[in-house]
Structures are given as structure tokens and as C-alpha cells.
Amino acid sequence: MEYPSLDKPTAGAIRFNTDSSQMEIYNGFEWTGILATSPELQTGGTRGMQFGGNAPNYYNNFFNISSTGNAASFGSLTSGRYFCEATASRTRAIVNSGEGAMTNRNFFTIASGGGGTSFGTSYSSRSATAFGSQTRGVFGGGNDFSTYGINTIEYVTIATEGNGIDYGDLFQKANGCGGMGDKTRGIYCGQYNPYTARCQYSTIAVGGLSSEFGDLTLHTRFNAASSNGTRGITGGGYTQTSPNRTNTIQICTIQTLGDFTDFGDLTSIRSHLAGASSPTRAVFFAGETPSQVNTIDYVEFASEGNAIDFGDLTATMYSSGGTSNGHGGL
Known about the structure:
The protein is an all-beta fold. The chain is built from one helix and 27 strands.
């Protein structure tokens, strides 16, 4: 039997959990498992994944972020959906409900490339924001098919199927905002209804009311966002003024509150796109120009500049969910 410590541990403390027979590290908020694994061991490199998309074609794709080339088919959702977001641990991806699936989340075993399995129910939403850590997936905001911008936040324990659990509230309602994060903090990029460039963040292990982060350089929604353990990137999106879409890429330092700065441009102007990342590279895929596209392009986190062509998805798509087994929260 494990007895509690007399004093609160400090961040970085390590212990052996006799119940799970696993080494754990204290991240300042909770004990989390130390995993002897990596994307290279699991899938031969960081695997980017695209889920769902415009009805009636709800394709899923995967690709190796460390290389370039065209995507391949991944598997099928239990029910079709779009305006759906996703997050992942090293081994499992969680796809939110979105439009078409109402309250049903799915999970996928990343290494298998097979079909999805029902995970549990969620609050009814589309265009929510998603991010997560190795243990916890967070879904916030979106719209409930009548109100365009809600402040609900839920979390799930990624390794254990179950319904979403109330996590707190956004201090400003959000809809169609890209999500990114590191191991402790998740960011909601922008806001719609009313339109604003304001961003907010949540501490993943704690929840509660979100806090203000800073502003985007450009008001966008339906933008893609991804991160490594230090920097967060958002690209593309729908803007308030003509021509109503952008190819702008913006960047922030996740642990430093403040405004985003300009990074470069995507290979094309588009909105309703998705993103995924490895520790070194951010990938943007799908979208609407207003025609649907199958474009994949990428940037290196360390080198500001314009995006480079990566390859193509198996079909044109927009309003998909995107994630990887090597994003900044892992």
C-alpha cells in the first residue's frame, strides 16, 4: 500500500508507484507516468493523422511527419463527422463528436491504422478546440448547433474510455479556434462571436476558468494550430475582412504570455484546415479556398519562413480533425 508524503513534492520529483509498478514524475500539478517509448518506437516516426471532413466523405489519413510524401488511408470513424477536433497520447488518438456525430467521441490505436471505437459521450458541439497531454485530452468551446460560441470545457482520461467530465469554463466564449499546447498548458487561438484576436489558456492538469494569453496578429477562425514542447504555431483561417481567408502563419512561446508574431505564409490561402506536429515540424493539411483541397504543407519550428509542399491527402477535405503522437503535450 502506498502512503502519502508528508510534504508536497516539487516539480521534477520522481517516485516508483508500487500500485502500477511504474516510474512517475511530478509535473507541478500531478504525478504522471514516465514512459519508455517514443514515436519512433511506436510508428517509426511521428505519425500525423487527419480525421473526418466534409459530408458525405469522412476519410481518415495518416503520414510520417518526419518525411514528405502523400498520405495513406487510416481507417473509418464509427459514424461520419466534420467540424471535429482531435488530440492524442503516444498510443491513442481521441476524435471529438463534431457535426454528424452529435455527442459520440471515437478513439483510434495510432500504431494499428484500423477503425475507430466509441469512446464515450461529450457535450453536443462542433468546431470545439482540442489539446492534451500524455494522460488527458481537453475539449473546449465550439457551438451547440444553436449558439455560435459556448464556454464549456470537458476533459477525458485518454487511456480509459468514458464520458467527458466537466473541466471548467472559458472566460470568453469560443468557436472554431485552433488548439495547441505543451505538457502543462493548452491554448485556444482566437475567438468568434464576437470576432476577436484574443487567445486564452488552461492549465491541463488543473482546469477551472481559463486565463488570457495574448493576441493573434490577425483575427482568424477555422485556423489550424499545432506545437512542440516550446513553441505554438497557427496558420490560415477565415478572416473578418475580404478576401475572408488568409495564408498567414503566426507563432508564440507557450510558457510566455504575450502576443503572437508573424512566422511566414502557407503555400496557399485557405481556411477550415487542420494541423499536426512533431518536435521539429508543424504540418498543415486540407482546407477550403473556397474549393476543398487535399494540400499538405509544413514548416520547421526553428526556422521562421514560408511553408513548403509536403504532399497530398487521399482526397480533398475541409473541417477535419488533426493530431499526432509527437505533439508538444507529450
